[in-house]
Every structure is written in structure tokens, then in C-alpha cells.
Design goal:
Length: about 290
């Protein structure tokens, strides 16, 4: 499919430079923190920072996998920063966050793939910020339940792991990760009683019925929160955009997901995994209560 290289009007964003944006930027820089907002080139970075929120990326900024859609660096990671859990916890407190999101690179170089570091980070945040809700967006840990149990022992409020794309495109898009493995990770988390969340990108050549099938698959394993956003090519080395999905189609996906029984569906061109994360969490609580 031939795609007009010029981005449509609905993908244009306005930059924030207000007090909250500068406050978050200062905390991130002073503590030398990694955020997916920056490394993932998120189009909502200025908006979220302007709202006083950020998604922290732990375990370094170099990933052991090389997914064809991701802007994060790939290579041999540096040793874990043992002080990072406390740094993140202090930063959450400095920002005054009511809801924080933590993600990480894949650490296949480590025996436990970073599971213990995840546990320590969540527990440090909880200790320093007892009233802050904690959402974690993790790798698949190769689907190992023993490693997932280590992470689960820290008791996050939301467990999230992204499917990323439809089943047909999964192997060609992702590195090492498998569609069925990701589905089983979400199934296991739901079985353990966690509020679970996942998300996909569109614009990679998928068909609407294939998007709907992903939604059915994850809903069937207990996922409550779902996000759908437009894939944007980070560099010329990454997968090309096959289609700029219209806001009207995103609205249809949201309607379909709502009818399926998801507690919350965030569907739009600029939506990303942690987009309006606190809003999604609060809406899920209202529906549950």
C-alpha cells in the first residue's frame, strides 16, 4: 500500500513548556533517569510531562532485543544500577505522583531477566509513596511463571504487558517475543488476580477484523484495560508505516472494545501504553465498584 509520507493533521501535536513540564524535566535530568517518554520518542511526552506524569524505564536504556518498531537502543546492556529502585521512589515522591508507570528494556542477559530488580523497584516506590498507585509494563520474561511470580510478589496495582500487534504480523515485527507467549503472560497475571492491561499498534498492514481478534483473545484471558495507537516510524531503519488509521476507525475500535466488556479502552492516533493511565485505572475501579 502506498502511503502519503506527510502525516495527517490529526497526528500534529502541540508542545508544552509550562511549570509542570519543566518540573518533571528537571527531576528526570537531575536523577539521570531513563524514561520511555524520551527513549521511545513518545508523541505524548510533552503533554504528559505537562500534566506532571512520566513513565520511568528501569534496568538501563539498552535492550537485548531488536523489535523492528522500537526506538530503544539495542546491544549489550550495562550492569544494573543497584540504587535505581530508591532513585525512582524518590523521584515519584518529588513529582508528587498519584499514579506512576514503570517499564523496562528486555534483559535477557540476566539469569532472572531483571525480575528481582523489578520487585525491588516496586517495593521501594510503595514504601516511599504508600498512596501512589503503581502500574507496571513488563517484558515477557520468556513466559516463565517463576520469574513472573517474583515480580507479582511486589503487588503492583496494574500489571501490563503489550501484545504490540496482530498475530499474523507478530513474528515479523517483534524480536524473540511470541504472540502466544504474551497471551499466556496476561492469562497468568489475570489468574493471579491482577488488574491486567495490554496494547497494540495499528498502521502496520493489519485488517480491522484482525484487530478485533486480538481484542477477543486478550479479553478471553481476563484483560480489563486495552490501548490502541498509531504506529509511527522512529527512523528509516524501522518498519515503514503502511497506513495512517483515521480517528473514525479508532472510534470504532473503542466501541467494539467497550461492547466486549473491557473496563476501559483508550483508542486514538496518539494513544500509547501509558496514555491517560491514571484515568484508565480510575474508570476500571468505578466499574468494578
Amino acid at each position: 500500500m502506498e502511503v502519503n509520507k506527510r502525516k495527517p493533521s490529526w497526528l500534529k501535536i502541540s508542545l508544552e513548556n509550562g511549570e509542570e513540564y519543566l518540573k518533571v524535566k528537571k527531576v528526570v535530568e537531575l536523577n539521570k533517569l531513563h524514561t520511555i517518554c524520551s527513549s521511545g520518542r513518545c508523541p505524548n511526552a510533552s503533554k504528559c510531562w505537562g500534566m506532571g506524569t512520566a513513565t520511568f524505564m528501569i534496568a538501563g536504556d539498552i535492550c537485548t532485543r531488536s523489535c523492528k518498531f522500537c526506538a530503544t537502543m539495542t546491544g549489550r546492556p550495562k550492569p544494573l544500577d543497584e540504587k535505581e529502585p530508591e532513585k525512582i521512589a524518590s523521584s515519584v515522591k518529588l513529582m508528587g505522583l498519584k499514579h506512576c508507570v514503570i517499564t523496562s528494556v528486555d534483559r535477557d542477559d540476566l539469569e532472572d531477566k531483571g525480575a528481582e530488580h523489578w520487585r525491588r523497584t516496586v517495593e521501594a516506590i510503595r514504601k516511599e509513596n504508600p498512596n501512589t498507585t503503581i502500574e507496571i509494563l513488563t517484558p515477557d520474561f520468556d513466559g516463565r511463571e517463576d520469574l513472573l511470580d517474583i515480580v507479582f510478589s511486589s503487588k503492583p496495582d496494574i500489571f501490563s504487558h503489550n501484545m504490540e500487534t496482530i498475530q499474523r504480523l507478530s513474528d515479523a515485527t517483534r524480536s524473540r517475543a511470541k504472540y502466544d507467549v504474551s497471551l499466556n503472560v496476561l492469562r497468568y497475571a489475570s489468574k493471579k488476580g491482577f488488574l491486567t492491561k495490554t496494547g497494540i499498534m495499528v498502521g502496520l498492514g493489519e485488517k480491522p477484523e484482525e484487530v478485533e481478534q486480538v481484542m477477543k483473545d486478550v479479553r478471553n484471558v481476563g484483560v480489563q484495560l486495552f490501548t490502541i495507537g498509531q504506529y509511527l516510524q522512529p527512523t528509516k531503519k524501522h518498519l515503514e508505516v503502511q497506513e495512517y488509521v483515521t480517528p473514525e476507525q479508532f472510534a470504532k475500535y473503542k466501541e467494539i472494545g467497550t461492547k466486549m466488556g473491557f473496563a476501559n479502552v483508550e483508542s486514538g492516533p496518539l494513544v500509547r501504553s501509558s496514555y491517560m493511565a491514571e484515568k484508565s485505572f480510575l474508570e476500571s475501579k468505578l466499574k468494578k465498584g
